[in-house]
Amino acid sequence: MAKRTSRPAARASAGVSAHATVTTPAPLAPGAPCPCGLPAAYGECCGALHAGRSAAPTAERLMRSRYSAFAVRDAAYLLRTWAPGTRPPAVDFDPRLRWTGLDILATTDGTAFHTQGTVSFAAHYEIGGERGVQREDSRFVRVQGSWLYVDAIS
Ligand SMILES: [Zn+2]
């Protein structure tokens, strides 16, 4: 059972649930399969992006790494890959929620030849024994060579 911290209730902001902030990423071994669904070990895939050893070359790759950051509860990575204009003050994770898979449904632009792009995805999760899916068309921009998440179109 999760212990409640002594922090005051987290601020709610658009699209971010207001549950207790988890400051420590959930442990995931570098050799574990990457949560993003690519056939690679976490340490060689999104783990390298989370650790700052490499940068996402495409909007889709950034989307995958952000999904993995939700899965391992890496708030710092989510915040630094969020466009300043839409970035929330904090990212709070629901400790009951477990992300179980990601499907990339479609992309537009978002390559090294573009400065913006969209990624449509379905993110699967489980909460309290119930399965759910979050579908979103996300907008991304590339600023000084780095892809950043902007917001959801739908
Ligand atoms: Zn990955």
UniProtKB/TrEMBL annotation:
It comes from Actinacidiphila guanduensis. Transmembrane segments: none annotated. Pfam families: YchJ_M-like. It comes from the Bacteria. Belongs to the UPF0225 family. The lineage of its organism: Bacteria, Bacillati, Actinomycetota, Actinomycetes, Kitasatosporales. This is UPF0225 protein SAMN05216259_101437. Gene3D superfamilies: 3.10.450.50. Residues 58-152 form the YchJ-like middle NTF2-like domain.
